[in-house]
Amino acid sequence: MKDVILDTDAYNEIDDQFAIAWLLRSGEKLNTLGLCAAPFLNKKSVSPADGMQKSYDEIKKLLTLAGREDVPVYAGSQSYLPDDATPVDSPAAAFIAAEARAHDAEHPLYIAAIGAITNVASAILCDPAAFESGVTIVWLGGHAHHLPKTGAWEFNMMQDLAAARVVFDCPATVVQLPCRGCVDRLTTTGPELLWWLADKNPLADYLARNTIAEAESYAAGKPWSRVIWDVSAVAWLLDDEGKLVPTEKTPAPVPQNDRSYAFPAGRREIECAVRVNRDAIFERLFSALTE
Fold it and tell me: Exposed e or buried b for every residue in 96-114, given b needs 16+ CB within 10 A?
């Protein structure tokens, strides 16, 4: 069984909720040590701190719907990193660093991040030695490497480019799940959600109707599909055979302030997802949410 921490900006979109729910319903393979609220700033928040607090509250709501109030939740950073060397203190960063210290190669820790990666980067900056052995960071952030001019022009990454650079340079094993050009195949529709999830149980019903309400707020009466790519992080954690989210070794990109990627010589290698098996992932997701 894998020990997992999930770091999420849960209120930012409708797909974090699917990832949280799938993780909570995968207790036979994934041991959830805690959930951390990540900061975000967009039309749903007035500041990174407000986004983090709303995410914290959304996580709590999902735990109640799932009947898993036993899972600890940690408040995250109230701001982004000011630079590549300065952490932002938070309960989430302290928790992540402590768990990294408590694990090793024989008892590994998996940190799945599906938002701005500030909390994880802060933990690394506070205690880099804790990440030298036994820690794998799985991050949905950035776009595919064949899009270097706009690779960092992705919400999770561009919210905190400094944090992205810290993570790509850290000693832990890093798995990148690129959005555009890879996991953006993970889309769903209203009819599919109604068929598989609606009225099945309180958690599944909330996920379906929350997604449908969000989509119909801008596309009522029109065909629509929604990306729920955050579930790729949980799919990777469950993918013991490398068939759901296959990856390849590649030099780590260096996110630039103009939101492009640079690939200087001598870069460390990371694992990077190259494709996703959409139908197999959704089959396992819907089954876990309704069983």
Answer: bbebbbebeeeeebbbbbb
pLDDT at 148: 87
Spatial separation of the C-alpha atoms in residues 13 and 140, rounded to whole Å: 14
pLDDT tier at 138, thresholds 50, 70, 90 = very high
In this structure, are strands 30-37 and 73-74 parallel, antiparallel, or unpaired? parallel
Q: Which domain holds residue 15?
A: 2-187+228-275
Task: Work out the average pLDDT over 98-123.
Answer: 97
Residue 223 forms part of a structural domain: no
Measured distance CA(185)–CA(171) in Å, rounded: 30
CB 270 within 8 A of CB 168: yes
Does residue 197 form part of some domain? Answer: no
User: What tens digit of pLDDT does each residue of 30-75 get?
Assistant: 999 999 999 999 999 999 999 999 999 999 999 999 999 999 999 9
Q: In 3-state terms, what secondary structure has residue 207? A: helix
What is the SS3 string spanning 116-156? CCHHHHHHHHHCHHHHCCCEEEEEECCCCCCCCCCCCCCHH
Instruction: Give the total number of structural domains in the chain.
Output: 1
* Distance (Å, whole) CA 113 – CA 279: 23
pLDDT band at 240; cut points 50, 70, 90 = confident
Confidence of residue 220 (pLDDT cuts 50, 70, 90): confident
Model pLDDT for residues 262-271, shown as the tens digit of each residue: 999 999 999 9
- DSSP string of 208-229, one letter each residue: HHHHHHHHHHHHTTS---EE-T
| Helix and strand counts by DSSP (H, E) for the chain | 10, 12
Here the CATH number for the domain that contains residue 83 is 3.90.245.10
Q: At a CB cut-off of 8 Å and minimum separation 6, what does 124 contact?
A: 97, 131, 166, 167, 170, 172
